[in-house]
Specification:
three-stranded antiparallel beta sheet, 10% helix
Length: 133
């Protein structure tokens, strides 16, 4: 009787680190996927249609990747990219301009929550919109 030893190679194992979107509505999130085990080369199929190992410049949402190795063993992993809540400041005119085109009116801008550094981009966009209005 002849005995052969067959290596049992498991499929790929996945882990990922993510970076959430910095401001509401932006697409600057990312997922950095790490693959170990299995037999390379690997193929990647993401739920958004991408076929790269990592995702960059993505909006908020849930992303799922299926990784297949050379032996057709697969592993699946999902990660959710979050985003901060939108800014909802309140602008109140306290004194109208004396004449159209004059810059002598005044107002207050109230933001109901603590302003975090990552939300400054939204506040700047709001200030530009108010200035242009």
């Amino acid at each position: 009787m002849k005995t052969e030893v067959v290596d049992n190679i498991g499929g790929p194992s996945l882990s990922a680190t993510k970076v959430d979107v910095s401001c509401n509505g932006l697409s600057d999130g990312s997922i950095n996927l790490s693959v170990s085990g299995g037999t390379s080369p690997y193929t990647y199929v993401w739920s958004n249609g991408a076929s790269t190992q990592d995702l960059n410049n993505i909006p908020a949402g849930t992303y799922t990747v299926t990784v297949s190795d050379a032996n057709n063993c697969t592993a699946t992993l999902s990660r959710t990219i979050n985003q901060p809540n939108p800014l909802n400041p309140t602008a109140v005119v306290t004194a109208h301009a004396s004449c159209e085109g004059n810059a002598d009116g005044s107002g207050n801008l109230a933001y109901p929550a603590v302003l975090h550094l990552t939300r400054i981009c939204g506040l700047m966009a709001l200030l530009v919109r108010i200035h242009l209005a």
